[in-house]
Amino acid sequence: MSESMMNVESTVIDGSFCQPLESTRLTRTSNWSPNETTIRSSKNIPCITKSEQQLYKLYAQALADSEVTQDWSSWVEMMTINCQKCCSEAEISHPIAFRTGRQPQLSRNIRTLQIERDSWLLWNRARDTLNNTRQDLPEVIPGSSDRLIVEHHLLNNPQLRMAKAVQGWLQTIKLDERYQTDIKMAMTKLEPKRIYWEKTCHFLKSSYNANLPNPYITSLDFDATHKQKRRLCDTDEQEENDLLQIVFNLLRVGEYSKAKNICKSTGYHWLAALLSANELYHDENYYCSETNDIIYPVEGNKKRIQWIESMYELSMDMRLKLYERAIYGLLCGRIEALIPVCKTYADYLWAYISCYIEQEIHHILICAHQNELTDIEKHRILSDNGIRNRQLKMPLIFDEILAGCPTHIRDEALLPFNLIQKYLILADYDRLFHSILSFLHTNNELNGSLLRFSTHICLFLYEQDHSEKFNQKNFIEILTTYIHHLIELEFKDLVCYYISKLPLDNQSTIMAKFLDTLSNRQDKEYYLKQGFTYKIDIDTSLLILAANQRRDQTFDKDNNEEIISTNSKNLNENDYKQLEALKLLTTFLSTQTLDALRFANQICRYFLNDSKYEGIRIALSYFPHDIDIHTIEANNREQSVDDLREFKAFGAYI
């Protein structure tokens, strides 16, 4: 972290990112035209909302604040909060956009911002899971409860921790306002009751008294429809389908308690008990001291291993309803039962991750309680057809999704943000950088949200010393593209700050190219001062800028009369550009170096060749009239004498 950043207090005032460089700011004109060949070929920039414009500045502010405090956890959280604020502001303007006919464009912008927000939320949950593995943990105590055994393995298994974090993230982003509204609307169809299949029960009672023929079941066992091969009353059938779908939707967002409560309130106590059976066994009384008088309730299912085996078989029983099989498949980790109810790529990923977690937990408990299993149970569980032999592997989950999903899900999985999220989950940072560059090179329309998120993820990894895991050239290209993007959006106040994030060898080149895009000298002076604040090598930047302004010499040796002509020609735009570069050299170089004098001699030769004597006079005016060898800093004094002699010869000629 640069020393100057310790004194920076970044603030947002009236929507602009400000650094306390000086008490007043130089007035700058707005007649700026970007040079499309300076940093990178220009892309088509889509219109962005006012709130999204603010987001660029909030990102830079949060990054600068984190460099001062070194609290990178808060920085990632601030990124998520900033995206959420931006989404909320954009949604507020939705009715106005509807009246002005810009609703489709604003809807796309809001959706993109939501994806960016969700990506930050993923990184906030997952970034520490792979780095906090405890290697010094003792072995788990024999006889420990299932919950303690699994918690111990979570500390040792970074992939399982990552899976839990991703599962929680997928549940969180699914539980948006619209999803909650849909669930509430569906729940209004269900009436609270003490028993399930109320209409069927009423018909049985009526038909028994009236001796009517009965096409329905004759008992209220929850599996009576399969045992008797009879059906329910149509109303009860529809209510059960609705209930199962609602329960699954609640499980999809991790609302297990709500799912059990709604089962109890509608009379489906057997389904509530089935959901409770998935809990890990734990008896707190076993771990309390003898002096403790409080008796705690026993939690979970002590026979969970055998129960999972039963659920594994039921989940593929085609006599059961679709969502009932999906619920059983989720509880036991059988992906084949979940796939038919998945509608989006996020649903597919959640299903695979959830099944992976359940399978890992099942395997952990089998290993822990292997001595307690009977020979028959061992043979059934550990056989070739057992769960363990078809267990999912975390690194291969994404490949399995692509191999077995429909075309529209595959297309969704290959979207830029989804691929970036994939590599963040797998911690494959080299492929992450390659995929980002691939999107930037192939898309004609530059996605501001994608570039903004990608750049700051790369900055985070670079600042956290993960550079050994990726190619630094890719990082430089991504950050350089973002700098060019800021220039095109006229966010020039942010450019110097992001240039300072580049490696030192690249800062001067990009700074010179940025200065070359500025047409006003006051702008250049202002951003040169800003560059000093961020410890950018301004001397080298100015020398590169001057070198870029040089033009090919077209001296005509046969036209001596033209050379000594007294008729001075007018200066053009390129001439003034070279003079401006010379002015910046003489003003901002830390010492009066030989390079400035040589550049002055070179452009004076051009002006003399073109009979532009006014240009020579202006160039000479930038140096003190009494300049001598002692005021020039150079390693080769003999060479500097020749350059000084040439410079004074121009003065004598004029």
TrEMBL record:
The keyword Hydrolase does not apply. It holds the Pfam family Nup84_Nup100. Its main location: nucleus. It comes from the Eukaryota. GO terms for biological process: mRNA export from nucleus; post-transcriptional tethering of RNA polymerase II gene DNA at nuclear periphery; protein import into nucleus. The keyword ATP-binding does not apply. Keywords: Membrane, mRNA transport, Nuclear pore complex, Nucleus, Protein transport, Translocation, Transport. GO terms for molecular function: structural constituent of nuclear pore. One of its GO terms (cellular component) is nuclear pore outer ring. It is found in: Nucleus, Nuclear pore complex; Nucleus membrane. Part of the nuclear pore complex (NPC). PANTHER family: NUCLEAR PORE COMPLEX PROTEIN NUP107 (PTHR13003:SF2), NUP107-RELATED (PTHR13003). Functions as a component of the nuclear pore complex (NPC). Belongs to the nucleoporin Nup84/Nup107 family. This is Nuclear pore complex protein. It comes from Rotaria sordida. The lineage of its organism: Eukaryota, Metazoa, Spiralia, Gnathifera, Rotifera.
